[in-house]
Amino acid sequence: MTEARLRTFVAVADAGSVREAARRLYVTESAVSAALAALARDLGVALVRREGRGLALTPAGTVYASYARRVLGLLEQGRAAARGAADPARGPLRLAAVTTAADQVLPELLASFRARWPEVDLALEVGPRRQVWSSLAAHRADLVLAGRPPAGIAATVLARRPNDLVVVGAPAPAAAFDPATTPWVMREPGSGTRATAEAYLAERDVAPPRLVLGSNGAVVAGAAAGLGVALLSRDAVRGHLADGSLVEIDAPGTPLHRPWHAVGGPDPTPTTRLFVDHLLEAPGWSRPR
Predict the structure, then answer these.
(1) Which GO terms of the molecular function aspect are on file (predicted)?
(2) Which residue of 25, 84, 173, 269 has the fewest CB atoms within a 10 Å radius of its CB?
(3) Are strands 164-169 and 256-257 parallel, antiparallel or unpaired?
(4) Which residues pair with 161 in a beta bridge?
(5) pLDDT by residue (tens digit) across 52-73?
């Protein structure tokens, strides 16, 4: 049960076919099929079954895939820890961040960290809340920048920074704002900010019209164009508030305090701690109390 076989199985689980898995792994289709067969013999159960022109996981395969991903993540984390222990300034660092943090919080931090530690092998994954926390739980990320970690995952909050969510709109919609009738511009389902906005409206028992846009930038632009109001991080709209294209609305119960968290696993690698120390030197960041 080698690492190569596990990687092949996960690739098939993700791709849904031997051909696509082979293409992603840069190996032959026969090598993929042989690895799958060998893994099934080791386990004594079928992991995949034919479905149309592709493959689907059996119930056993679905269960095993989650373990395989965690094992592969642990192996990567172990390599990162070993390399970081030898020299933290040359170790790998796998960051994962929700979109808003990647857009508004990370750019200056990454630039200054790169300038200070240019030989760190840095990788960044950007995605919705569920994706980045899954990466931490599966050991595919060393550090996550997002909101509060969900219950049930092994996580250590290493630093935090204040973050206020405010309701904003162009001057005309802002002047006529009514939580129940004014249209709201929102991110797609799965976004943490979208979930917070929907919870905010549900708490007030209102159901205004919604316009769904696919990125933070699109939501900000849509609000500035007068398409509706939006619940956004004040950091994300500071420039628009300064130039008057957006106005902060005195909506009931706002601002919402939703701090940013830098979260690692139970035993952060030396290179992860190097980045956290750098983070704590930046304005606004502090250790959790």
Answers:
(1) DNA-binding transcription factor activity; transcription cis-regulatory region binding
(2) 25
(3) antiparallel
(4) 260
(5) 878 889 999 999 998 888 888 8
- Over the stretch 114-172, which tens digit does the pLDDT of each residue have? 999 999 999 999 988 889 998 998 888 999 999 888 888 888 999 999 999 999 999 99
User: CATH class for domain 164-256?
Assistant: alpha beta
Contact 190, 156 (CB under 8 A): no
How is 51-63 classified by DSSP, letter by letter? ETTEEEE-HHHHH
Average the pLDDT over 246-266 and give the result: 92
Give me the percent of the chain exceeding a pLDDT of 70.
Answer: 100
CATH assignment of 3-57, given 1.25.40.20, 3.30.360.10, 1.10.10.10, 3.40.80.10? 1.10.10.10
Integer Cα distance of 281 and 62 in angstroms: 43
Report how far apart the first and last C-alpha atoms of the chain are (Å, whole number). 44
Same fold, 3-57 and 164-256: no
Whether the per-residue pLDDT at 214 is higher than 80: the answer is no
C-alpha count within 13 angstroms, C-beta hemisphere, residue 172: 7
3-state SS class at 158:
strand
Instruction: Please report the pLDDT score of residue 88 as a whole number.
Output: 85
Tokens of 274: 């190097």
Residue 14 contacts by C-beta under 8 Å, 6 or more apart in sequence? 21, 24
Element (H, E) at 26: none
Please provide residue 206's backbone torsions phi and psi, each rounded to the nearest 5 degrees.
-125, 155
The torsion of the CA quartet 27, 30, 32, 35, rounded to 10 degrees, works out to -120
The domain limits of the chain are 3-57, 89-163+259-280, 164-256
Q: Which CATH architecture has domain 89-163+259-280?
A: 3-Layer(aba) Sandwich (3.40)
Angstrom distance (rounded) from CA 120 to CA 108: 16
